[in-house]
Specification:
The protein is α/β, with parallel strands linked by helices and about 280 residues long. It is about 20% helix and about 20% strand. It has helices spanning about 25-30, 105-110, 135-145, 160-175, 215-225, 250, 270-275; strands at about 45-50, 60-65, 75-80, 120-125, 150-160, 180-185, 205, 235-240. Helix 4 links the parallel strand 5 and strand 6.
């Protein structure tokens, strides 16, 4: 299934809302006590690595938090971009900069990325037209082998085409995936794969006026998952009168308090929600 659209260049307001990080260190620490032992992120490094032809590994940006060289293992967040950021950095290294246009990589570049606990952020670039579940799996293995990753705390999120990629990765691999939680934004998936999400928490986001990917795609996926009585009920947060770009207000937290009361609330930031879960 392919969608044909062009993603807009995203501009994030310089000051993020105070509500961005609503979940305290103490609250998360009670669930994941070892996170409190990580050195504080006083400013990290966003490293570009271009497509590796020998393994056909995605080119990517990897964020290494300040204090990364302490020897500690870090949570890993994998971010999947949308269709407008597709590019091949093997043929043209400048193509990789497209990844920085939106989502978490843009927050990092604007130096407004500051979750409660530090984390690695891996932002691969799709170069083949659509995200592939098998290659995402191999990419996570590559990152885990090269960097100090806490294998019990790997998370995946993505927007638009990346939202489809998130649903597809978990749908194909289920409990064999590496992720402890997943957050697809304005995406969709295969409703026949509902059982694959039995043990993996899902929190989807969508604008109800999205003209590019209908909100029905998220609704039908969350319903399909919850019909299987998952361990953690899948959540869907909806923004009234918001179009395709429902990701900016999700990733920077400015959507808190702007969500529809007919769906799940946006009462804690996305990253604190992720860190509550570990891979069993």
């Amino acid at each position: 299934m392919k969608l044909f659209f062009k993603l807009p260049f995203i501009f994030i307001a310089a000051p993020l809302l105070i509500a961005f990080y609503s979940c305290s260190e103490e609250e998360i620490g009670k669930k994941n006590g070892s996170l409190s032992s990580l050195p504080p992120d006083t400013g990290g490094e966003h490293v570009a690595e271009h497509l590796l032809p020998e393994k056909n590994i995605y080119g990517h940006y990897i964020y290494l938090p300040g204090g990364y060289d302490s020897g500690s293992e870090y949570p890993l967040i994998v971010f999947l971009h949308g269709m407008g950021e597709i590019g091949n950095s093997q043929n043209n290294p400048d193509e990789l900069s497209k990844v920085l246009r939106g989502g978490i990589p843009r927050l990092i570049e604007k130096k407004t990325w500051n979750p409660v606990f530090p984390a690695l952020v891996a932002s691969p670039q799709c170069h083949e037209g659509w995200w592939n579940a098998k290659k995402i799996h191999q990419y996570i293995e590559y990152i885990a082998a090269k960097y100090k990753v806490d294998m019990n705390r790997i998370y995946i999120t993505g927007l638009s085409m990346g939202g489809y990629g998130v649903f597809d990765y978990v749908g194909v691999y289920g409990d064999s995936s590496y992720v402890a939680a997943a957050a697809p934004i304005c995406g969709g998936g295969n409703v026949k794969q509902g059982k694959s999400y039995q043990n993996i928490p899902i929190w989807a986001f969508h604008g109800d006026a999205d003209p590019t990917v209908s909100i029905d795609r998220s609704i039908e996926m969350i319903e399909a998952i919850n019909k299987q009585n998952p361990v953690h009920k899948a959540k869907l947060t909806v923004y009234p009168n918001v179009g395709h770009d429902s990701w900016t207000m999700t990733y920077d937290g400015t959507g808190m308090g702007k969500e529809s009361s007919d769906y799940d609330s946006f009462s804690e930031d996305l990253y604190s929600w992720m860190l509550k879960y570990t891979k069993e």
